[in-house]
Design a protein that fits this description.
single chain, 232 residues, mainly alpha, MetI-like fold, 10 helices
């Protein structure tokens, strides 16, 4: 209880004084996670919709793979991205290992299967309800993709929020490809891990509380703007 009370006091003090180091960590965390979430959504939403709309050989296998990858171990993803971006890797010439860009890539890889799986589940029901009507009106399956995504926007928002939740809480992958460099690639989760290993439990708990508050705030804002855009 003493540690928790001290953590609350530390968090309040850091937020109240706009601590520069904390602000830098929070801004980087949000920037990396939101960028990765949008990237994963841009890739996963169309793919998930296509899996619901099109019929082709191997479709069932792809759906199984997408759902199986929901439990993809972050450290494995981090290792794979590390090997791809290392000097001896195929993308080593880009020189982006141990940068925020590498962290975005690792988080996006983890989030894409989440978006695909969740969007597919939503779009299967939307296609069953509206697909025939769209085809009768003369729309092709490709042309029906955008109207379907507009109809199922609430499910798409849920998929984005799930991706953001996975990204903002990520540790294993980004600490491998980011290196936890102070002032450059140190995020909320990597800072918590570092402070815990140093024995500074109060500061680690303070960061954890702030992380939860930020995650809940972003989710609340997303739902609010989603309702505003739909006029509800």
């Amino acid at each position: 209880m003493n540690d928790f009370a001290q953590a609350l006091d530390t968090a309040a003090s850091l937020i109240g004084h706009f601590d520069p180091e904390l602000r830098e960590i929070v801004v980087l965390s949000l920037g990396v996670s939101l960028t990765a979430s949008f990237l994963a959504f841009a890739i996963g939403a169309p793919l998930g919709t296509a899996l619901a709309v099109y019929r082709f050989r191997g479709k069932g296998a792809l759906i199984v793979v997408a759902n199986a990858l929901l439990g993809l171990p972050p450290v494995v993803v981090g290792l794979a991205v590390y090997l791809m971006l290392s000097r001896s890797g195929p993308l080593g010439s880009l020189g982006i290992l141990f940068t925020p860009t590498a962290m975005v890539i690792a988080q996006a890889v983890l989030c894409v299967p989440i978006v695909i799986a969740l969007v597919h589940r939503v779009m299967v029901e939307v296609w069953a309800s509206y697909g025939d009507a769209l085809l009768v009106d003369g729309a092709s399956r490709l042309g029906a993709t955008w109207p379907l995504m507009c109809i199922g926007h609430e499910g798409l928002l849920t998929a984005f929020l799930a991706a953001f939740g996975r990204a903002i809480a990520e540790l294993g992958a980004i600490i491998i490809v980011g290196g936890n460099v102070r002032g450059y690639t140190r995020t909320m989760t990597t800072a918590i891990a570092l402070e815990t290993s140093k024995g500074d439990l109060s500061f680690a708990l303070a960061l954890g509380i702030i992380l939860v508050i930020l995650s809940m705030t972003v989710s609340a804002l997303s739902f609010f703007f989603g309702r505003v855009l739909t006029g509800r």
